[in-house]
Design goal:
It is a single chain. The chain is an alpha+beta fold. It has one helix and five strands, in the order H-E-E-E-E-E. Strand 2 and strand 3 form a beta hairpin.
């Protein structure tokens, strides 16, 4: 996804209090991507998105973000 698409989804999720699923572009040595992070967006810390106040994801490693 393009950065603009990602930020549009983030903004709508915050305004409408929607649950999102975030897939990062991080993978292991076998090429398997990390499990997606699912939850409500709580806010930002520097360049990181806070999800469920437990997980943080840097904006630049988000591969896709969708509404649940």
């Amino acid at each position: 996804m393009l950065l603009k698409e990602i930020t549009d989804v983030i903004n709508k999720a915050i305004v409408k209090n929607k649950i999102v699923k975030v897939q990062t572009n991080k993978s292991d040595s076998n090429g398997m991507f990390e499990f997606p992070i699912v939850g409500h967006i709580c806010g930002f810390i520097n360049d990181q998105l806070c999800i469920n106040s437990k997980s943080t994801v840097r904006i630049d490693v988000i591969r896709s973000i969708t509404f649940m």
